[in-house]
């Protein structure tokens, strides 16, 4: 009878260990899912930030272009020396 009892005890321990492992796996999968959601949210926020940066950069370029056109139109003798970053007239 002790052999049978040992067999069932061993089986019960293995089932308990199996249940614990299933629970751990489930918790890890939940953490992974949350991490994936966070990663996706951060990637979306990064994309939005990049779009906003591009919009600001384009607006800045547009304003610089308008200013240069205004300068060329109203002050034809004005020259921009790009090599030394100095303005000369």
Supply the key terms.
1 helix; single chain; 89 residues; two-stranded antiparallel sheet; 2 strands; mainly alpha; rod-shaped
Strand order of the largest sheet: 1-2
- Computed over alpha carbons, the radius of gyration is 35 Å
Number of strand segments: 2
Strand content: 5-15%
- The helix-and-strand class reads mainly alpha
The coarse silhouette is rod-shaped
Q: SSE string, helix = H, strand = E?
A: HEE
Describe the structure.
The protein is built from 1 helix and 2 strands. The N and C termini lie far apart (109 Å). It has 89 residues and is mostly helical. It is rod-shaped and about 110 Å long. The protein has one helix at 2-74; strands at residues 79-81, 86-88. Helices cover 82% and strands 7% of the residues. A two-stranded antiparallel sheet has the order 1-2. Strand 1 and strand 2 (86-88) form a beta hairpin.
Offer a concise description of the structure.
By secondary structure, the protein is mainly alpha-helical.
Write the layout of secondary structure elements.
Elements: H1 2-74, E1 79-81, E2 86-88
Antiparallel strand pairs: 1-2
